[in-house]
Write a structure and sequence with these properties.
The chain is mainly α. 77% of the residues lie in helices and 1% in strands.
């Protein structure tokens, strides 16, 4: 029995590695590139519009229309979910594998992801449905059933099943515990035991439970407060490092551009750098996975294109700004070079400890706490939406308890197989979402023409 389970575990890990590698990358980046071109480079040409409508107060945001939160709250809640460990650990790993040039391709991927998020946000308002309690809801499951038609409902059900698994926060909870033990408890001489990890898991449950049991309005309210604070705080901290190392800054950006287009090692090496950076950013911003449309589907906004414009700002912030902020101290420190088996968070912590001796690691750990918990708050909502669609609104509370229990499990046990299952589910969510977006993209384009013509 034990050998059989071990073989099953190995098969799951192998399947996840195969599907979640370049096939998922080409699905998200290839599909996003098509949407970027098809929309007429919406993420570049319409960026000023997006910034303008973000500042506007619309009647549809005042609470008179269907939905639970405002467009801005939807954006900040979606960013709270995507800005997480991947923005720190993932970027550090990308730098260790592909060098500074990966940062440039993260920027390119952000532009492509912005186009995908535009289509997601627009469709989330175009096609809404009602749950068993009569509440207006949005997300890929409703876009599929309302936009593609009832005959496609099995695809909506499939997305929701994958979403129940893919949106668990095993990685965030586990890595947060690992970070605490590395930076705090182990240096203090406290042994890293199962009991200690269990206690930390319970503490996380108390914090997360206090937020998610209040529903989407409490999650959105907290996200609207915590996201601007954590991004601005991170920006200030990196600016301090840049000021203390101002002579190194031209060299940092020089390395990014030089490495991004370096053909001296051959075209294969150049392509590898480009794919590494673009792939990391695609996984960070989740464009095309369907999570953003679940959040933007809760918006009170009734103008689809306006919601799309606001939604597309997400990748600019998470895989554009935040990933760049992470990369600058690591490139300055140079401690990412020559690592054969890089552990992203340790690389980032090492860079901050090197550049700000005594307080650097503590400051970065503060940001890690913000990022990890904000993700756990918002991800719970995605699981609630999937539960609602599959089992009815009255059963959502049971998902919350399941989600909280899994945080404790994640804190205590090794997660290789479970994370592989989650990654595989995430890839299948993306397959359902990208197929739907591309099929419905002509309808979005018609909405675009009408909206910009009238404006």
């Amino acid at each position: 029995m034990g050998d059989m389970l071990e073989k099953l575990s190995d098969w799951i890990v192998s399947a996840s590695d195969a599907v979640c590698g370049y096939p998922e990358f080409f699905l998200l980046i290839g599909g996003g590139l098509f949407l970027f071109i098809y929309s007429g480079a919406v993420s570049i040409r319409r960026l000023p519009w997006a910034l303008r409508v973000l500042r506007e107060k619309q009647a549809s945001d005042s609470g008179k229309q269907s939905g639970q939160i405002s467009s801005v709250q939807a954006l900040l809640s979606a960013i709270a979910a995507t800005v997480g460990m991947g923005n720190i650990a993932g970027v550090a790993i990308a730098l260790s594998i592909g060098g500074p040039g990966t940062v440039f391709w993260m920027w390119v991927s952000a532009l492509v992801g912005m186009a995908t998020k535009f289509f997601e946000g627009t469709l989330s308002i175009m096609y809404k449905g009602r749950d068993s309690a009569g509440e207006v809801q949005g997300g890929p499951m409703y876009i599929i059933s309302q936009g593609l038609g009832k005959k496609w409902k099995p695809l909506a059900v499939a997305f929701s099943i994958f979403g129940l698994v893919g949106t668990l926060c095993f990685m965030q909870a586990n890595q947060l515990v690992e970070s605490v033990t590395t930076v705090f408890t182990t240096p203090m001489g406290i042994e890293n035991t199962v009991t200690l990890r269990f206690i930390m898991g319970v503490v996380m449950v108390l914090i997360v439970g206090a937020v998610i049991l209040g529903g989407i309005k409490r999650i959105a309210l907290l996200a609207s407060r915590i996201v601007p604070v954590m991004v601005v705080l991170y920006l200030i901290m990196v600016l301090v490092i840049m000021a203390l190392n101002f002579r190194e800054i031209p060299g940092v950006f020089g390395k990014i551009f030089e490495s991004a287009f370096d053909l001296r090692a051959g075209f294969g090496a150049f392509a590898y750098v480009a794919l590494t950076g673009a792939r990391r950013a695609a996984f960070v911003n989740e464009a095309g996975v369907g999570t953003a449309s679940m959040m933007h589907g809760a918006s009170k906004n009734t103008e689809p294109v306006r919601e799309g414009l606001i939604a597309m700002l997400g990748p600019a912030i998470d895989s554009g700004l935040v990933c760049t902020l992470t990369s600058i101290p690591i490139i300055i420190a140079g401690n990412y070079v020559g690592l054969t088996d890089p552990k992203g968070l340790y690389v980032a912590l090492g860079a901050w400890g090197q550049l700000l001796p005594g307080i650097g690691q503590l400051l970065l750990m503060t940001i890690v706490f913000f990022f990890a918990f904000s993700t756990m708050f918002s991800y719970s909502y995605y699981g609630q939406k999937c539960t609602n669609y599959l089992f009815g609104a009255h059963n959502v509370k049971w998902y919350n308890y399941y989600y909280l229990a899994m945080i404790v499990v994640a804190a205590v046990i090794p997660l290789k197989t479970m994370v592989s299952i989650m990654d595989l589910a995430f890839a299948l969510m993306a397959l359902c979402t990208m197929f739907t977006i591309i099929v419905l993209s002509p309808r979005v384009k018609r909405q675009m023409k009408e909206y910009f013509k009238n404006k």
